[in-house]
Amino acid sequence: MAKSGAMKLWLSSAALLLLCCFLLPSALAEDRFYEFVVQETLVKRLCKSQKIITVNGQFPGPTIEVYNGDTVAIKAVNMAQYNVTLHWHGLRQLRNGWADGPEFVTQCPIRPGGSYTYRFTIQDQEGTLWWHAHSSWLRATVHGALIIHPRRGLPYPFPKPHKEFPVILAEWWRRDPIAVLRQSMITGAPPNVSDALLINGQPGDLLPCSSQETSIIPVVAGETSLLRIINAAMNTELFVSLAGHRMTVVAADAMYTKPFDTTVVLLGPGQTTDVLVTAHAPPGRYYLAARAYASAQGVPFDNTTATAIFQYKNAAPGCPTTSGRSSSRSSSGHLGRPGPRPMLPFLPAFNDTNTATAFSNSLRSPHPVKVPGPVTQEVFTTVGFGLFNCRPGPFCQGPNNTRFGASMNNVSFQLPNTVSLLQAHYHHIPGVFTDDFPAFPPVLFDFTSRNVPRPLWQPVKGTKLYRVRYGAVVQIVFQDTGIFTAEEHPMHIHGYHFYVLATGFGNYDPRRDEAKFNLVDPPSRNTIGVPVGGWAVVRFVADNPGVWLVHCHIDAHLTGGLAMALLVEDGGNELEATVPPPLDLPVCVL
C-alpha cells in the first residue's frame, strides 16, 4: 500500500509538473495597451521649423517593447488632417489580417477624428520589427521600433548584451512629404528625393544646424551593446558602418542568423538587422554613419550622410579623432557641443553592388532548417518600372513625356477606394478585385536587357490578386527588369516570413539556377532585396488565410504600382480561417 501511495503521489506530481510546463508560458504572457495619437507636431530640422505628422508628438514615434506571447492592443486616434492606418511590419497576424493595416488592403482608413484599436497576439516571434503608417506617404514621419523579447525567463541565443539601442534610419524633406507625393501624382514625374538622411530622427553633425541634436549612443569600455537597426527610409537603401569597431550580425527581420562579423551592414527600406558591438576600441567618440546604396544608374538620390555618435563613458580628452589628434571644437567643426571630433567610418561607394551582394549572401539561418517542398504553386513575376503614354503637358512630365509607373508582371497595381480588399473577400463583395494576377509574365523577353522594346514599357492598370490554396507550398521568383532602368527592389510580403533560397544576376533560368538553391540553412526574412538586374527566389507555406499585400518597400515604386496581393483561402476548419472583423473596424465610405 505504501508503495502504491508513493507511486500515485509521484504520478500526480509529474502530471502537475507537466501541466505547469504547458501553462507557464501563457501564465507569464501579459496584456499590453498603448494609445497612439496621430497628430501634427512642430519640429526643426536643417535650420527650418515645420509641421510634421507624428505619434504622441514624438519623432521617431514611441517604441513598443513586448515579449513573445504577449497580447497587444494599440488604440490609434487620428487627430491629424489626413487619413491614416498603421502597419506592424513583420508581424504575421495569423488569421487576423484586420490588424495588418495597409490602407484599402485590410481596412479602410481611420478618418480625421476617428479611432481604431489594433489587437493582436505575438505568436512565436522575437527580435526587431517596426511599425509605420501605411497610408499615403505618412510613414516618412509616422514610424517607430517594435521590439519583441524572448518569452519571460528565456535567454537570447547569444550572450546577453549589457545594453540595447534602437537605431532608426529615415529620410527628411524640407516640405510636407504628402505634398511631395501629390506633386508627383499630378505631374507624372518621379517624386523629388529627400533632403537629408536621419539616424534616430536627426541628420547628425555633417548637416547644417544639426550638431547640437546629434543622436548619442552611450557605451562603457569592455561592454557589449545590441544595436537594433531599422531602415524606415522611404526610398533609399542604406549602408551602415561604425568607425573603429566590427559588428556581429545576429538577426535580420526578427529572425536569428548564423553570427558573422562585418564592418558594413546593408538594409533596404523595411528591413531590420541586429548587431552586437563590443566597446573594445580606445575610449573616445566614433561615428555611426549611414549613406545611400543607389543601384539605379542615372537616377537622382539623396547623397547626404547621416551620423550618430558611439560615445564611450568618461572618454578622456585626446581620444581618437579623424585626424588622429584631439580637437577643442565640436564634432561638426562648429563651436557648440564640446569634445573631440569623432572618427568617421569607411562607407562603400553609393554604387558598390559587390559589397551589397557580399553582405546579403552572408545571411544564413543559425541551424539547418526543413525547407518546405515540393512546390505546389509557383509565381514568376517581373518587378520593375513602366512608363504610361500621355499627351504632353503639365500632367505628363515623366521621362520622355510620359507618366512614371511601375508594375509586377505588367500589372500596375491599383488600390480600391471604397472598401478594402479583405472586406470584399470576406463579405463576398463583387467588382472590387479580380483573382487573375498572372502567375508568369504575359510576354517573355530579355528581362534585364538595357534595350527592352518600347512597346513593353507600358503596363496595364488593375486590381488583380493571386489566389493561393491554404497549405500550399508557394515559391515566388522575383525578376528585376531593365525597363527604364534596373534597380534593386526590397520586396515585402505581408503576413509571412519566407526562406530566401537564392539570388543572382541576369535572367532567372530554373535549369541553371535551381542548383544554387540553399536547401540547408537559407535565411528567413519578410523583406528581400531583389538584386539590381537580377532575381530572388523565396518559398513559404501558405498557412495564414486572408489578403496579404506583396510590394516593393520603396514607396516611390509602391505608389507607382509595384505591388500585388495574395488571396490565401481558408483551410478546412475554424482554426484555418480568417477571424471575423472587429466591431470597431473603420467604416468605409461607399
Automatic annotation (TrEMBL):
GO terms for molecular function: hydroquinone:oxygen oxidoreductase activity; metal ion binding. Residues 38-152, 164-315, 437-570 form the Plastocyanin-like domain. Residues 318-343 are annotated as: Disordered. It catalyses: 4 hydroquinone + O2 = 4 benzosemiquinone + 2 H2O. It is found in: Secreted, Extracellular space, Apoplast. It comes from the Eukaryota. Keywords: Apoplast, Copper, Lignin degradation, Metal-binding, Oxidoreductase, Repeat, Secreted, Signal. Residues 320-338 have a biased composition (Low complexity). Its EC number is 1.10.3.2. Its cofactor is Cu cation. GO terms for biological process: lignin catabolic process. It is an enzyme of class 1 (oxidoreductase). Residues 1-29 form the signal peptide. CDD domains: CuRO_1_LCC_plant (cd13849), CuRO_2_LCC_plant (cd13875), CuRO_3_LCC_plant (cd13897). Belongs to the multicopper oxidase family. NCBIfam families: laccase. This is Laccase. It comes from Urochloa decumbens.
